[in-house]
Amino acid sequence: MSLEHNENIEILLGFLEECQEDLDEAEPLFIECENSTRNDGKPDSDTINTIFRLFHSMKGGAGFLDLTTISSITHDAETLLDLFRKGEGSLKSEHIDLLTNTCDLLREIIHQTVTTYDDSGFEVEVKKMKARLGKAISEIHGTGKSLVEKQGDATEKLSNPVIHDAEPEPEVDSELPANESNNSSASLTELAITPEIVEQFVSEAEQLLDDAEQYLLGLEKNPADRDLVTKAFRSFHSFKGNCGFLGFADLESISHAAESVLDQFREQDSVIHEKLISTLLEFLDFIRTALSQLSAGKTPSIPALPGLKTYLAAVVQECNSTEDTSESDEHSDFKEVADSLDDTMQSEKLKTDLASHEMETKDDVQLLQSGNNSSKNTDDSIETDKQSTLKENNILRQDKKKPLEQPKQHKQYQTIRVDVEKLDRLLDLVGELVIAEVMVSQNPDLKGITHSMDRFDKAVMQLDKITRDLQDIANSIRMIPLSGTFKRMVRLVRDLSHKAGKKVEFEILGEETEVDKTVIEQIADPLVHIIRNSIDHGIEKPEDRLAAGKAEVGKLTLEAEYIGGEVWIRIRDDGKGLKREALIERAREKGLLDNDCSEMSDLQVFQLIFQPGFSTAKEVTDISGRGVGMDVVRKNIESIRGKVDVQSESGKGTEIILRIPLTLAIIDGMIIRVGNLRFTMPLTSIRESLQVRKDIITVTPDGQEILKIRNELIPVVRLHELFEIEPTNTTLESGIITIVENEGRVAGLFVDELLEQQQIVIKGLSSYIGKLECVSGCTILGDGDISLILDIRGIIEQAQVSSRNMAKLATSYEMN
Amino acid sequence: MQKSSSIDNDLLDVEYVEEDTQKDKFLTFRLGEEEYGLEIRNVIEIIGIQRVTDLPDTPKYVRGVINLRGKVVPVIDVRLRFGMAEKEYNERTCIVVVNLNEMLVGLIVDSVSEVIDIPAGDIETPPTMKKSAKNHFLSGLGKVGDTVKILLDLDQLVQGEDIEQILEVANV
Lengths: 816, 172
Hints:
The complex is a heterodimer of chains A (816) and B (172). Helix content of chain A is 59%, strand content 14%. By secondary structure, chain A is α+β, with helices and mostly antiparallel strands. Chain A has five domains: 150 residues, Four Helix Bundle (Hemerythrin (Met), subunit A) (Up-down Bundle); 251 residues, Four Helix Bundle (Hemerythrin (Met), subunit A) (Up-down Bundle), CATH 1.20.120; 58 residues, Helix Hairpins; 182 residues, Heat Shock Protein 90 (2-Layer Sandwich), CATH 3.30.565; 150 residues, CATH 2.40.50.180. In chain A, helix 1 packs across helix 20, helix 2 packs antiparallel against helix 3 and helix 18 runs antiparallel to helix 19. In chain B, the strands form two sheets. Chain B has a six-stranded mixed sheet. A five-stranded mixed sheet of chain B has the order 3-6-7-5-4. Chain B is globular and about 45 Å long. At the A-B interface, helix 18, strand 17 and strand 18 of A face strand 4, strand 5 and strand 7 of B.
């Protein structure tokens, strides 16, 4: 298939994205399997089935898109999984390793394919992986069947339908030997089926199904209309023919069943029962679901097929038996149905036999089998209770529920994929709309109007409400649950704990918590660092834990929750915790601390682990048990305006809390005035604002002003000097001092006036300006003016650089 | 956009027309006594002078940022960029908003004159006789009737080195 057209590339990229999601989903399931295996020796069948399905759909999509590498490797993994699914092999830890490694390789391939649109170039790795998979398969299988040889199969495009053909044939033949199209289908599928043909088939099929539905609905009103029966029959018949041609066995089989029912009424005089019509309509729904699989690039399959057929036969029987029994035709009818019931069951047995014999057909048979299994029990009961219609009815009720519920499990969320750029643009526009709305509602021109403005005010209120709603929705679009990121950690914990020889029980809580997309991107790395630290240095070896009187298995919890306007992500372990003395000692050695630290709070001591110099040396981590890459953690979290807190108790464990604001685009700001300029300060960094008296001001010889407030020495930063503005007030007593805080450092900003507190939309300064020392961005105020957002951290830093003496003073204060 | 492929003729025609209408066209503006020209394809719009918010820690010619319908756009005073004397803004002062590599920048000029055609044949490379740093910003000299328009290299004007640095190098 040529991938020159954008449309195809889109399909390809869509598929690759799906693959990544599938892999993301599969990985934690592997771990889950491993855990459950450890507990009771058997993997959870639901989990294995889910994984199997994920791989199967990847394989199907890859086959459709001609991604031979991906399709062949997923095929092998699927084969292996299948063995565990059927309980033929016991799932061991090395198998999990093997399969997770397969996932890694697939990720690599996908990563490349996203840019090159081609999945070749991994021949060596793929060969190795396939050899390993093949080995695992043959070990389990024991038969020594050479699986490596048949790997080519999976790469053959649309090889699956051919396989499908093999199974339903006996059934079709036994029921309707006259139908010729089935027999030839196997050879026809040898012809190349291009995506165009499939596309055409789908659109034609939709038309036919719509027609059939119309006729059936018409029949419901006019059950005696023989013409409608014939038309409906014809629609099903044409559809069946098309399916046969393309080798979609499930579709063919189900439409055949529907067709045969209609056929009976075509020739007889008996009136078609209402119940039968609704059953046939349900069949149409199943066919449609299967068709949508086809449009999605998968092989259409109806897992509930056998159950459906049995159900249909029973409905036919039921409908017939309710008719006048004196009619002689009825008996033969009844018999016919009973025969067909037997046939169905026979064919199912055949299928099961085929399944165990034919390795090639395995994957596809599986789909049918899963359907079989669900209907098996009820099938048996049908057999025994065949004569007693009443009882049967009850069971059939249950049976009916089953096949109807099954497809629902696969029902996908109604979502569309949208280019992130478009989303960002939407968010920008909404931001601009919010500003524009304020510009209208608070327009200075309105002040001149003296007459009543009730209607205007009402309209503005309406506009305001809609704007806020729109803003909320736009923001929520970018919100993504943390589950994806959290699930990736499951694998990390497993690998790390194996490597470190530690036993760790990993618990994830609140994974449904949603955060901004940017946050997701920014917290993955910090989480890895923190979890690595917890396992490497926090949680002790099993024997040490036992010696310390703790449970052998360490506990690591990853938890997310909304607290106020923030999302808190906690990483908690019950390891040995941080040792205050060791941290201080280490900091001294590194020259990070130079005075007496006995009065430092634990919180301050723990903050030391975020010092860049603290983390690099290996022996530091040996002593402290913490520190690798923690400065990276803090930097990443701060870049999304978050905070990192550490709580720890020696010997009991450590908890690291990442506090992240909910939205990145909007903050609560305090607008202040200096001279004729208005600046905005993030409200979160303001501790208090006050007017000062002369007696608390001290001026150092080099001119630095210091305030003594409640026993605390606070250096003053005159904003007008920093920004070179002509201020209204020049003496500290006449203006306002706003005490701001960042990472434990405090400064008093001297401003002229506090104006108001409001939500502001953060805008970046142009890339032309680049990063400024004391400004983190800007916002547009209600009157259209631009207000710069002060970078409190930068200002405090600059203040300390500008006055070395003061900086020393401030630092020594902090230490004390 | 690949212009070489010839499948979509209709689409390409439109493109050519657009290219054609913009080709050889220059927006001229005045700084002091001289007329300058900018290629029209970079020009987004021309607005009157409006309130500019100062930025700290920026070169003097970067006057600050303006609010262009909700977009924050930095503005450069071209006079100061060229090292010319500062002039008070008046009602004729304009901000020419240009798009340079998807980045919007406003250029403050004394006044905007007109849009004119200067065919490539009438453009001469700037003479290198005088070692003037200001030539750094020139892309050519356009002859229009009796007058000469100084055509500017927008890239250099906006993102090139600071005039002081260039002068320093020239003096050494």
